Amino acid sequence: MHPADGEVLVVLLDDKSLNAIGGNEPSRGQDAQLLERLFAMGANRVFFDRVYADPTDLHEDRKLVAAFERHRGKVFVGALPQILQNDGSVVDLLPHPRFRSSVEIVSLEGQEAPFGLSASFPVKTSILGAKRRSLSAELARLEEGEGFYRPDFAIDYATIPTISYIDALNGDGFRDAVDGRDVVVAPSSHTSNDFHPMPYRWAVKKVPGVYFHVLGAETLKRGLPTNFGWLPIFFFACVIVVAQARIKRPSTRYTLLAGASFLVAPFVLDGVNISVDVMPGVICFLIASIRLQRLARNTYYGATGLQRIETMHESKMIAAKDVFALKIRNFAIISASLTPLQVEQLLQKALLMLRATNPDPQVAFHKDTFVWTRPKSMLTDAQGHLKGLHAIFRTSITIGAHAPDVATSLGLDRSYEASMRERTQNAIQSAEDAARAGEIFRVSETQIPEDRNWHLQILSELEHAILNGEVEVAFQPKVSLSTLAIVGAEALLRWTHPTRGPINPAEIIAIAEAHSRMDKITNFVLNRALSQTRLAIARDPSFMIAINISALDLHDPLFPFVVEQNLAAHRIPASNIVLEITETAQIYDEGSVALTLSALKKIGVQLSIDDFGTGHATLEHLRRIPADEVKIDQSFVMGMEASDENWMLVKTSIEMIHSLGRRAVAEGVENQTIMTMLREMGCDEAQGYHFSKPITMQALVPKLSWGAAAA
Q1: Alpha-carbon distance 670 to 652, whole Å?
Q2: 710 exposed, middle or buried (CB, 10 Å; 0-12, 13-18, 19+)?
Q3: How far apart are CA 428 and CA 436, in angstroms?
């Protein structure tokens, strides 16, 4: 910011002047008198920031015309071509013919930038068939040049010499202010509409438009700024966006540096009399940067460079490639002893080990499993590759002071006609089966045609089965480990197909989520479970019914209303309901999920995190989901007897869950020994075959008064 050069004097027709004159504007005779006063005090030229478009009293107008004639060539009045009217028409606002022949005409045209961040003025404008200079160009005596330019807003408008119209009209004591200067007479009273925000002076209210013209004149005295328009900055923004798009994780540092350059560039260039428009480039850059960040977050797993499994699901099916999966069996134990940053470092080092055997594969990560594709090969070669990978990962991976041993199992899918979703799921399931069987790897061969057809029609058959009453809900008791009393139950979907027999609920859920059809299944289980829970609550008012919901249900903003309607229809208190949220689908893609969770809590239902410990995302669940209880996955509970690591993991999980003020529930309690271990650890509740298999509500209700010991 620097002061004005002081070569232009502004005479403001302010409220003080109007009060003294006694009207909304001075008469033409008073304007003529002002002209004479100003030239008598030594003014070089006088500019009126007015148009004089309308005639007034003929005698008064003749006085002004006579004053114009006496100072011909030194008096300028304004004109505004192409003015948009309120009715949509366009007119030229020009001086009345009475005045045109005796006075010079300058353009008052100007353009205000969005948000009041800048303004621009033309050097010349076509008026009455001739190119006429703008007020600022005439003040600067600029002879050449075309187009628009921006004034230098680093000039402090408050330092421009200014006096009141009435003081200049009286002419007392202002000779020094007028002598040798160009004078601009402009309106500034409350009746004037010519007020505008001064860019970068947000503490200042709107100022009279005349100051913009004076700032423009001082800018043009240094020469007409070179205007490169919007293309250079926009092109620079596109280059940055393309560069960011070529990397897996857009660099936050480069984004901030580019953003800073957009802010600094116009000021630096203004210093060398170059104008650029940054707003189109800034808008393009902001939109692209936000989109790239969201795309990277939805595509890649943290900063590891690993794809999310959903990204691989959406890719095209590649018949000429095999799909591999590598499961880190002890990933939950390893991640519990590492920080989130160290976990990402572990995954990055594991990724490097995978790429050592296959140059630049596209590798995805899901829970605890790597998934990638490789060119199709003979089965014996693929099996050799699996054994080699297993050997590579038998060595420990050093992360800081930690060197955890990585236990792996692998899966291979060769069903080349299936979709990528099916193939990745087959490979992951094969790795899971290998882990459970204690094998190095398993191969999933091509599915038989009837199995593929079954997957395609399973949902439609399920709908028919629901309508025909072939689908039921069973209830597995939940037991308090302190009293061994049944305190609730988990509602479980049960479907016995006429030809295929019992259908695995996990298979139904996986396909329903893949086709976004979970809502009907959830509604059925919710309605059926609540209708039967009335029997249990009548026996024990504190009985809690747990109902599984998918993460996809949380993306539906209407889901809380569905829950509330079902509760009202069956007259079940919300406090008796626990909604168990599983990790089967991604949960945090949309901010609406947090609103859904909040709405469910307002209703009064309790929330539970299901299958805790089966993936790294469970720690994120603990932080984000306002859960009342956490269920420890049965794979760890069932392995406590044979594995000290599983025993320690369950114990640590219970302590962490309690430290967060939540209930700890253990799944998969199969015998007395495991139950005793859990009681000693302070686990709150448990369920499993040791207490009861899933049964009907009619069979469960009589057991409530007897307690779990009798079960």
Answers
A1: 21
A2: exposed
A3: 13
Which element (helix H / strand E) includes 100?
A: helix 97-100
Give dist(CA 111, CA 132) in Å, integer.
17
Cα–Cα distances (Å) from 208 to 121, 211, 378, 511, in that order, read 15, 6, 82, 68
Q: Both tokens of residue 269? A: 């260039």
Per-residue pLDDT reduced to its tens digit, 318-346: 667 889 999 988 888 888 888 888 888 88
Q: From residue 111, how far is each of 83, 281, 538, 656 by CA, in Å?
A: 12, 20, 75, 63
How many residues are recorded in the chain? Answer: 711
Give the chain's end-to-end CA distance (angstroms, integer). Answer: 85
pLDDT over 90, % of the chain: 40
Is residue 625 within 8 A of residue 597, CB to CB? The reply is yes
Q: Which residue has the tokens 């890649």?
A: 300
Helices (H) and strands (E) in the chain, counts: 26, 34
For 9, the token pair is: 């004097």
* pTM over the 0.70 mark: no
Tokens of 580: 């168990």
DSSP 249: S
Q: Which long-range contacts (CB under 8 A, 24 or more apart) does 397-405 make?
A: 397/346, 397/349, 397/350, 397/353, 399/338, 399/342, 399/345, 399/346, 399/349, 400/342, 400/345, 402/337, 402/338, 402/342, 404/330, 404/334, 404/337, 404/338, 404/346, 405/330
User: How far is Cα 614 from Cα 291, in angstroms, rounded to an integer?
Assistant: 31
Do 97 and 112 meet the contact criterion of CB atoms below 8 Å apart? no
Do 66 and 101 touch, CB atoms closer than 8 A? Answer: no
- pLDDT (0 to 100) of residue 584: 53
Question: Is 173 a residue whose pLDDT tops 90?
Answer: no
Whole-number Å distance between alpha carbons of 68 and 46: 10
Residues 6+ apart with CB under 8 A from 290: none
Contact call for residues 349 and 397 (beta carbons, < 8 A): yes
- In the chain, what are the domains? 2-224 (no CATH), 231-301 (no CATH), 306-447 (3.30.70.270), 452-710 (3.20.20.450)
- Single out the residue of 611, 560, 556, 604 nearest to residue 582, CA to CA: 611
Is 39 within 8 Å of 180 (Cβ atoms)? no
Instruction: Give the distance, in angstroms, between the CA of residue 711 and the centroid of all CA atoms in the same chain.
Output: 51
In the block, tokens 């005090």 appear at 41
List C-alpha distances in Å: 536 to 403, 487, 545. Answer: 51, 10, 9
d(CA 304, CA 153): 47
Q: Are 123 and 133 in contact (CB under 8 A)?
A: yes
- Alpha carbon 607 to chain centroid distance? 26
Q: Measure the CA–CA gap between 582 and 191, rounded to whole angstroms.
A: 67
As a whole number of angstroms, the distance between CA 167 and CA 110 comes to 29
Q: Are 676 and 696 within 8 A, CB to CB? A: no
Q: How far apart are CA 696 and CA 687, in angstroms?
A: 16
Strands, E assignment, 481-576? 486-497, 501-502, 544-549
Helix (H, G, I), strand (E, B) or coil at 506: helix
Pairing of β 685-686 and β 471-480: antiparallel
Query: What average pLDDT does range 593-616 have in this prediction?
Result: 85
Pairing type for strands 663-666 and 629-632 reads parallel
| Three-class SS of 5-54 | CCCEEEEEECHHHHHHHCCCCCCHHHHHHHHHHHHHCCCCCEEECCCCCC
Can you tell me the distance from the alpha carbon of 341 to that of 567, in angstroms, rounded to the nearest whole number?
A: 43
pLDDT tens for each residue of 71-90 = 999 999 999 987 766 676 77
pLDDT at position 634 over 60: yes
